[in-house]
Protein backbone atom coordinates (compact mmCIF):
# COMPACT_ATOMS: atom_id res chain seq x y z
CA UNK A 1 0.00 0.00 0.00
CA UNK A 2 1.44 3.39 -1.01
CA UNK A 3 0.79 6.76 0.63
CA UNK A 4 -2.29 7.58 -1.48
CA UNK A 5 -3.92 4.21 -0.71
CA UNK A 6 -3.21 4.65 2.98
CA UNK A 7 -4.96 8.02 3.00
CA UNK A 8 -8.04 6.58 1.27
CA UNK A 9 -8.19 3.78 3.84
CA UNK A 10 -7.89 6.26 6.68
CA UNK A 11 -10.67 8.41 5.15
CA UNK A 12 -13.02 5.43 5.12
CA UNK A 13 -12.20 4.69 8.75
CA UNK A 14 -12.97 8.28 9.73
CA UNK A 15 -16.31 8.14 7.94
CA UNK A 16 -17.25 5.13 10.01
CA UNK A 17 -16.01 6.22 13.43
CA UNK A 18 -16.01 10.02 12.96
CA UNK A 19 -12.94 10.60 15.12
CA UNK A 20 -11.90 14.26 15.17
CA UNK A 21 -8.26 13.34 15.82
CA UNK A 22 -8.16 11.18 12.70
CA UNK A 23 -9.81 13.95 10.67
CA UNK A 24 -7.00 16.30 11.62
CA UNK A 25 -4.39 13.71 10.57
CA UNK A 26 -6.24 13.14 7.30
CA UNK A 27 -6.12 16.83 6.40
CA UNK A 28 -2.37 16.85 6.99
CA UNK A 29 -1.77 13.62 5.07
CA UNK A 30 -3.94 14.66 2.13
CA UNK A 31 -1.70 17.65 1.49
CA UNK A 32 1.19 15.25 0.87
CA UNK A 33 -0.49 12.26 -0.74
CA UNK A 34 1.20 12.87 -4.12
CA UNK A 35 4.66 12.96 -2.59
CA UNK A 36 6.75 9.94 -3.51
CA UNK A 37 8.57 8.44 -0.59
CA UNK A 38 12.34 8.70 -1.24
CA UNK A 39 14.21 5.44 -1.57
CA UNK A 40 16.57 4.69 1.26
CA UNK A 41 20.25 4.75 0.41
CA UNK A 42 21.58 1.25 -0.05
CA UNK A 43 25.10 0.67 1.18
CA UNK A 44 27.20 -0.97 -1.47
CA UNK A 45 28.21 -4.49 -0.63
CA UNK A 46 31.40 -6.27 -1.60
CA UNK A 47 29.72 -8.18 -4.42
CA UNK A 48 28.34 -4.99 -5.97
CA UNK A 49 31.57 -2.99 -6.17
CA UNK A 50 34.37 -4.52 -8.21
CA UNK A 51 32.94 -6.24 -11.26
CA UNK A 52 35.76 -5.38 -13.66
CA UNK A 53 38.49 -7.84 -14.53
CA UNK A 54 41.71 -7.09 -12.72
CA UNK A 55 44.47 -5.64 -14.90
CA UNK A 56 47.50 -7.82 -15.61
CA UNK A 57 50.86 -6.77 -14.20
CA UNK A 58 53.79 -8.30 -16.08
CA UNK A 59 56.22 -7.85 -13.19
CA UNK A 60 53.75 -8.83 -10.46
CA UNK A 61 51.29 -11.24 -12.12
CA UNK A 62 49.54 -12.54 -8.99
CA UNK A 63 49.24 -9.57 -6.62
CA UNK A 64 46.22 -11.00 -4.81
CA UNK A 65 48.04 -14.24 -3.99
CA UNK A 66 51.19 -12.42 -2.84
CA UNK A 67 49.14 -10.16 -0.60
CA UNK A 68 49.90 -6.95 -2.49
CA UNK A 69 46.16 -6.53 -3.06
CA UNK A 70 43.79 -6.89 -0.13
CA UNK A 71 40.21 -8.07 -0.57
CA UNK A 72 38.82 -8.04 2.97
CA UNK A 73 36.89 -4.79 2.83
CA UNK A 74 35.29 -2.13 0.63
CA UNK A 75 37.39 1.04 0.63
CA UNK A 76 37.68 4.23 -1.40
CA UNK A 77 40.60 4.56 -3.79
CA UNK A 78 42.61 7.68 -2.93
CA UNK A 79 43.24 8.32 -6.63
CA UNK A 80 39.86 7.96 -8.39
CA UNK A 81 37.69 8.23 -5.23
CA UNK A 82 35.66 5.19 -6.29
CA UNK A 83 34.76 2.27 -4.01
CA UNK A 84 36.74 -0.91 -4.54
CA UNK A 85 36.95 -4.26 -2.80
CA UNK A 86 40.41 -4.95 -4.25
CA UNK A 87 43.00 -2.46 -3.09
CA UNK A 88 46.72 -1.87 -2.60
CA UNK A 89 48.33 -0.80 0.69
CA UNK A 90 51.95 -1.88 0.13
CA UNK A 91 54.80 0.65 -0.25
CA UNK A 92 54.05 3.74 -2.33
CA UNK A 93 56.69 6.44 -2.26
CA UNK A 94 55.02 9.86 -2.33
CA UNK A 95 54.74 13.04 -0.30
CA UNK A 96 51.03 12.46 0.38
CA UNK A 97 49.88 9.79 2.80
CA UNK A 98 48.04 7.21 0.73
CA UNK A 99 45.75 4.70 2.41
CA UNK A 100 44.53 2.65 -0.56
CA UNK A 101 44.80 2.50 -4.34
CA UNK A 102 42.69 0.44 -6.72
CA UNK A 103 44.39 -1.86 -9.27
CA UNK A 104 43.13 0.17 -12.23
CA UNK A 105 44.69 3.45 -11.06
CA UNK A 106 47.97 1.59 -10.64
CA UNK A 107 47.85 -0.12 -14.04
CA UNK A 108 47.12 3.01 -16.08
CA UNK A 109 49.63 5.16 -14.21
CA UNK A 110 47.06 7.61 -12.81
CA UNK A 111 48.15 7.02 -9.22
CA UNK A 112 51.82 7.84 -9.80
CA UNK A 113 50.91 10.83 -11.96
CA UNK A 114 48.42 12.29 -9.48
CA UNK A 115 50.61 11.87 -6.40
CA UNK A 116 54.01 12.12 -8.15
CA UNK A 117 55.02 8.86 -6.51
CA UNK A 118 56.39 5.42 -7.34
CA UNK A 119 55.87 1.83 -6.26
CA UNK A 120 59.55 0.95 -6.30
CA UNK A 121 62.67 3.02 -5.68
CA UNK A 122 64.31 3.26 -9.12
CA UNK A 123 67.76 3.09 -7.52
CA UNK A 124 67.12 -0.24 -5.82
CA UNK A 125 66.67 -2.29 -8.97
CA UNK A 126 68.93 -4.30 -11.25
CA UNK A 127 70.14 -2.57 -14.40
CA UNK A 128 67.99 -3.03 -17.53
CA UNK A 129 68.80 -1.25 -20.79
CA UNK A 130 65.25 -0.36 -21.82
CA UNK A 131 64.16 2.62 -19.69
CA UNK A 132 60.52 2.05 -20.61
CA UNK A 133 60.68 -1.20 -18.67
CA UNK A 134 61.91 0.71 -15.64
CA UNK A 135 59.01 3.14 -15.97
CA UNK A 136 56.53 0.26 -16.14
CA UNK A 137 58.08 -1.28 -13.03
CA UNK A 138 58.21 1.78 -10.79
CA UNK A 139 55.10 3.60 -12.03
CA UNK A 140 52.60 0.90 -13.03
CA UNK A 141 53.48 -2.22 -11.03
CA UNK A 142 52.33 -2.95 -7.46
CA UNK A 143 55.30 -3.43 -5.18
CA UNK A 144 56.06 -5.84 -2.37
CA UNK A 145 56.84 -5.19 1.28
CA UNK A 146 60.26 -6.03 2.71
CA UNK A 147 61.86 -5.77 6.12
CA UNK A 148 64.25 -3.19 4.69
CA UNK A 149 64.32 -1.27 1.41
CA UNK A 150 62.80 -3.46 -1.29
CA UNK A 151 65.03 -4.51 -4.20
CA UNK A 152 63.83 -5.71 -7.62
CA UNK A 153 65.84 -8.30 -9.53
CA UNK A 154 66.22 -8.69 -13.30
CA UNK A 155 67.27 -11.42 -15.71
CA UNK A 156 67.63 -11.72 -19.50
CA UNK A 157 67.75 -7.91 -19.67
CA UNK A 158 64.25 -7.52 -18.26
CA UNK A 159 62.80 -7.24 -14.79
CA UNK A 160 61.68 -10.44 -13.14
CA UNK A 161 58.17 -11.15 -11.95
CA UNK A 162 57.73 -11.08 -8.19
CA UNK A 163 56.34 -14.47 -7.16
CA UNK A 164 56.00 -14.12 -3.40
CA UNK A 165 57.51 -14.41 0.06
CA UNK A 166 59.51 -17.56 0.74
CA UNK A 167 61.67 -19.41 3.21
CA UNK A 168 63.90 -22.46 2.87
CA UNK A 169 60.89 -24.75 2.92
CA UNK A 170 59.45 -23.08 -0.18
CA UNK A 171 62.63 -22.91 -2.27
CA UNK A 172 64.29 -26.24 -1.43
CA UNK A 173 62.17 -28.20 -3.96
CA UNK A 174 63.07 -25.79 -6.79
CA UNK A 175 66.79 -25.20 -6.15
CA UNK A 176 67.70 -26.65 -9.54
CA UNK A 177 65.52 -24.04 -11.25
CA UNK A 178 67.46 -21.01 -10.02
CA UNK A 179 69.66 -19.07 -12.41
CA UNK A 180 72.50 -18.67 -9.88
CA UNK A 181 71.34 -18.80 -6.29
CA UNK A 182 74.85 -18.61 -4.82
CA UNK A 183 75.44 -15.27 -6.54
CA UNK A 184 72.02 -14.01 -5.44
CA UNK A 185 72.83 -14.89 -1.83
CA UNK A 186 76.21 -13.20 -1.96
CA UNK A 187 74.79 -10.03 -3.49
CA UNK A 188 71.94 -9.78 -1.00
CA UNK A 189 74.00 -10.04 2.16
CA UNK A 190 76.56 -12.81 2.21
CA UNK A 191 74.64 -15.91 3.29
CA UNK A 192 75.68 -19.20 1.74
CA UNK A 193 73.39 -21.93 0.50
CA UNK A 194 74.31 -23.98 3.58
CA UNK A 195 73.02 -21.14 5.80
CA UNK A 196 69.52 -21.10 4.36
CA UNK A 197 67.95 -24.05 6.23
CA UNK A 198 68.88 -22.36 9.50
CA UNK A 199 68.07 -18.73 8.72
CA UNK A 200 65.70 -18.31 5.77
CA UNK A 201 62.09 -18.53 6.92
CA UNK A 202 58.88 -17.09 5.53
CA UNK A 203 57.57 -14.49 8.00
CA UNK A 204 60.81 -14.88 9.92
CA UNK A 205 63.66 -12.54 10.79
CA UNK A 206 65.40 -13.51 7.55
CA UNK A 207 62.77 -13.17 4.83
CA UNK A 208 63.14 -14.43 1.28
CA UNK A 209 61.62 -12.82 -1.83
CA UNK A 210 61.20 -15.02 -4.88
CA UNK A 211 61.48 -13.67 -8.43
CA UNK A 212 61.12 -15.44 -11.77
CA UNK A 213 62.53 -14.41 -15.13
CA UNK A 214 59.72 -13.62 -17.57
CA UNK A 215 61.91 -14.77 -20.47
CA UNK A 216 63.61 -18.04 -19.43
CA UNK A 217 61.53 -18.81 -16.28
CA UNK A 218 64.61 -19.22 -14.09
CA UNK A 219 64.22 -18.17 -10.47
CA UNK A 220 66.16 -15.57 -8.53
CA UNK A 221 66.23 -14.87 -4.80
CA UNK A 222 66.56 -11.76 -2.68
CA UNK A 223 66.46 -11.65 1.12
CA UNK A 224 66.82 -9.24 4.01
CA UNK A 225 66.73 -9.16 7.81
CA UNK A 226 64.40 -7.39 10.21
Break the fold down into its secondary structure elements and pairings.
Blueprint: H1 3-17, H2 20-30, H3 46-49, H4 63-66, E1 69-70, E2 75-76, E3 83-84, E4 87-88, H5 103-107, H6 110-115, H7 131-140, E5 154-155, E6 158-159, E7 161-166, H8 168-171, H9 181-188, H10 196-199, E8 206-212, E9 219-225
Helix pairs in contact: 1-2
Offer a few descriptive terms:
14% strand; 10 helices; single chain; alpha+beta
Question: What value does the Rg take, in angstroms?
Answer: 29 Å
Strand order of the largest sheet: 7-8-9
Number of H- or I-type helical stretches = 10
Fraction of helical residues: 25-40%
Could you tell me the number of beta strands?
9
Description:
The chain has 226 residues and is of the alpha+beta class. It has 3 domains: 1-38; 40-145, no CATH class; 147-226, no CATH class. The protein contains 10 helices and 9 strands. The strands form 4 sheets. A 3-stranded antiparallel sheet has the order 7-8-9. Helix 1 (3-17) packs antiparallel against helix 2. The longest helix has 15 residues, at 3-17. The model is unreliable at 35-45 (pLDDT under 50).
Amino acid sequence: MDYADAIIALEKAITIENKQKDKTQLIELSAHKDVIKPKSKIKKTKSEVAKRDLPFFKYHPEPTLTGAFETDNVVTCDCCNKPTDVYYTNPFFAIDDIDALCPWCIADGKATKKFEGSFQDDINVDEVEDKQKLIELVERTPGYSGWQQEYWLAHCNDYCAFKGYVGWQEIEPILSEFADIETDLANAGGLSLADLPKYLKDNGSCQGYLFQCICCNKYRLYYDFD
